[in-house]
Design goal:
The complex is a heterodimer.
Chain A (H helix, E strand, L loop, with lengths): L7 H17 L9 H7 L1 H11 L4 H10 L4 H12 L17 E6 L87 H7 L29 H9 L3 H13 L7 E14 L8 E18 L7 E10 L3 H14 L15 H8 L1 H9 L6 H38 L1
Antiparallel strand pairs in A: 1-2, 2-3, 3-4
Chain B lengths: L21 H16 L5 E2 L13 H10 L5 E6 L6 H13 L3 E2 L8 E5 L12 E5 L13 H9 L4 H14 L10 E3 L3 E3 L9 H4 L5 E6 L4 E5 L5 E3 L26 E5 L6 E5 L2 H9 L7 H6 L9
Classes of the chains: A alpha+beta, B alpha/beta.
């Protein structure tokens, strides 16, 4: 009959056991390995690295395994680990112009130096199940994401048995004949589209703030408002993809006034260089995979500055185009104050965006509501009962008074 | 830049004493000193990502981690009780990371970390109360923008709060804030006492203990040095008053403590018991008997203690 949460110690230990059991699932099914998650769920790993603010594919995969695929929980694990890591310095600024391109598309030019590189993208897949993926495959299925639809004979009944596509034996598992892909090697140089516009003076320049100070680090220092751009970009890079997607969408749909073009989205590897004090020259630490998006927005100008396009910028770990694009939309929206625009919409208000984009903080505070609150609730109960009691008493008194007033009349 | 080490089988990766690294502790202590120097003022600090969820006490945990040492005895309560799940979890955290000596006795503890209550037993000089704070800004519900509320504090412009309290009276006949009831500290700053019931507000006034407040998610620390004036906001014709109950604690018979309501059946049966579990136990050990102690003992809610 006693239901309050008391005597929690044993219950807490039991929950840990139950979680371990639930995580493993049916023991008859082989356990998934961290390497499998890292290699085959790379987009999920990228999201965990972004929202966990730590570039480490192995740990991201481990976090996903440990959290049963709960991305926010996985990001939380990453952050709680990251905060304990010693810091031995800051890398040199990354040069995304020197990126080893995997994918690069521009919506502003039909063709440009380096060309359009579609790379691995779901953009032109038809979202039809590839039932062949239900079974382990010998070779990578080219139809993963494409579905069985195109170029495949269906049988007379109109149903299609899931099966491997009948492909050229010379290139098992590929849609293109062998060698076709290699026939068009990528250009060595792929200038960033906003740089092309910038050379013409049409693009808002990215100038470091006066004195080029060390960027703010929002994991070490509290944010104050109005927040500068380095803080805003950091916050968004680790912000929740869904939240930024919604905000970016709101800007585009009408709750904000930006009409952007994708100047460029590029995905690929960039070298991270570090200058150890004792050496005095840069050492290559390795590559990170990045997605960079630069949006070209409607122009601004003034008496002093001729009209220029304005920039929205997004840079995130891994192949995360949706996040990078959302970020660049919101980045531009948050520049409203700098350009003297009205800040009427949520995406234009830095306090709103920065405080609420952090999904680890948001999840913690939302979910803390399930903690015991019975002391506070008892305060509310005491109050509401008393107010109601006092109201009833007052009404009863008024009623009495009324009846007494009416009494003589009734007697007459 | 990956610098994590996958530990070998025979090595155990070690965290620093009390989890936080010493630089971080120093940063937090500096914020604490500033907070003590300006009672009630919210000091921004570089709140760290903690291995416990935001909103679950990360501010209080960081403060405790920054001040705890091997000589300390730690008591952790949530809703006044030592055995609520989150209190158990936080106590375990410090037992694991700081090898902390823990206790349930209010008078034995040197540090008391709390969520939502101040113990009933009076605090003593030398004790430190650490409050877990969800929303450090008392004006937040009235003005959502931090940039604005900081200005309001700077100018001691608290008219908005007075109007809100007045509106409560106009609408309901009294101020309807039952917890996190705003206080004026040292005649200067309006402060959120954290969601303790207003029943506990008077205990803050001129307390001999040092009171520290940590809001991890909001990255703010504030403090009440010992013997600081803490006045609950009110009006001359509507003076501040605390909660009261029509019946005493069902277990120990106390009529001076904050009570939790326990639903005992689906027929409207209620039992009121002390929210401060240690206070209630101490009283029972002293031989006090509530009217429902027999029922509660029979149902395993309490153990019969022999005085």
């Amino acid at each position: 009959m006693y239901v309050a949460v008391k005597g929690g110690e044993a219950a807490i230990l039991a929950t840990h056991d139950l979680v371990a059991e639930a995580r493993r699932g049916d023991p008859a099914v082989p356990e998934i390995t961290v390497a499998q998650i890292r290699e085959q769920q790379a987009l999920a790993c990228a999201r965990v690295m972004n929202e966990g603010s730590l570039y480490d594919q192995d740990l991201a995969a481990l976090a996903l395994k440990q959290s049963q695929g709960d991305v926010i929980e996985a990001a939380f694990l990453m952050r709680a680990y990251r905060t304990t890591l010693p810091r031995f310095g800051s890398s040199e600024p990354l040069d995304t112009a020197a990126m080893a391109i995997r994918r690069r598309v521009s919506a502003t030019y039909k063709d440009l130096p380096g060309g359009q590189v579609l790379g691995p993208t779901y953009d032109y897949t038809h979202r039809l199940f590839d039932f062949a993926l239900m079974e382990p495959q010998q070779a990578p299925s080219p139809l993963g994401g494409e579905g069985w639809g195109e170029g495949m004979p269906s049988d007379a009944q109109g149903t299609v048995a899931p099966s491997l596509p009948s492909s050229d034996p010379a290139s098992p598992g590929h849609l293109l004949p062998r060698g076709e892909k290699e026939r068009a090697p990528l250009d060595a140089t792929m200038p960033r589209v906003p740089d092309i516009l910038g050379a013409e003076g049409l693009m808002e320049a990215e100038e470091p703030p006066e004195g080029d100070p060390r960027p703010f680090d929002l994991t070490r220092d509290p944010v104050s408002f109005p927040a500068d751009r380095d803080v805003r970009l950091q916050s968004m890079a680790r912000g929740d993809e869904g939240f930024l997607l919604g905000l970016g969408y709101s800007v585009q749909r009408g709750f904000g006034g930006t009409h952007p073009f994708v100047g460029e989205v590029r995905v690929g590897e960039v070298a991270v260089e570090f200058v150890p004090e004792e050496l005095g020259f840069a050492v290559d630490l390795g590559d990170v995979t990045l997605t960079e998006c630069q949006m070209v927005n409607q122009f601004q100008g003034s008496k002093e500055v001729p009209p220029q396009f304005t920039r929205g910028y997004g840079l995130v770990f891994g192949h995360s185009e949706r996040k990078a694009m959302s970020m660049s939309l919101v980045d531009r929206a948050l520049k409203a104050r700098d350009f003297g625009e009205a800040t009427n919409y949520p995406a234009q208000q830095d306090e709103f965006v920065l405080y609420h984009a952090d999904n680890v903080e948001a999840a913690g505070f939302v979910e803390h509501l399930k903690l015991p609150h019975y002391v506070d609730f008892q305060g509310e109960l005491e109050l509401i009962r008393r107010i109601r009691r006092e109201r009833d008493e007052r009404l009863a008194q008024e009623q009495n008074a009324k009846e007494q007033d009416n009494m003589p009349e009734a007697a007459e | 830049m990956t610098i994590h080490q996958m530990p070998a089988d025979d090595t155990k990766p070690a965290y620093n004493y009390a989890y936080l690294d010493e630089q971080t502790k120093r940063m937090i202590r500096r914020a604490l000193l500033k907070a003590v120097a300006v009672p009630g003022y919210q000091v921004p600090f570089g709140s760290r990502e903690m291995p416990l969820a935001r909103g679950w006490g990360t501010g209080g945990i960081q403060i405790t981690a920054a001040i705890i040492g091997p000589a300390d005895t730690l008591k952790v309560i949530d809703q006044g009780a030592d055995d609520t799940t989150n209190a158990v979890s936080i106590r375990r955290f410090f037992e694991r990371t700081a090898d902390a000596r823990t206790c349930e006795a209010t008078d034995k503890a040197t540090i008391i970390q709390t969520r939502h209550r101040i113990p009933e037993a009076p605090l003593k000089p030398g004790q430190v109360m650490v409050y877990q704070v969800p929303t450090p800004e008392p004006l937040r519900r009235l003005e959502p923008r931090e940039a604005e509320t900081r200005k309001m504090h700077a100018w001691a412009e608290y008219g908005l709060m007075q109007v809100k309290l007045y509106e409560d009276i106009a609408r309901y006949g009294e101020i309807t804030k039952t917890y996190d009831y705003p206080v004026m500290v040292n005649g200067r700053y309006v402060m959120a006492p954290s969601p303790i019931p207003k029943f506990d507000n008077p205990k803050m006034h001129m307390s001999p203990a040092l009171q520290l407040f940590g809001a991890g998610r909001e990255k703010r620390i504030y403090a009440l040095p010992p013997y600081t004036s803490v006045r609950s906001l009110d009006f001359e014709d509507h003076p501040f008053r605390i909660q009261s109950w029509a019946q005493p604690c069902g277990l120990c018979g106390a009529d001076d403590s904050y009570l939790d309501e326990v639903v005992i059946d689906d027929q409207g049966g209620r039992m009121f018991v002390c929210s401060d579990s240690h206070y209630c136990e101490t009283r029972r050990a002293e031989g006090h008997r509530g009217t429902m102690l027999g029922d509660a003992a029979a149902s395993g809610l309490v153990e019969e203690t022999t005085p």
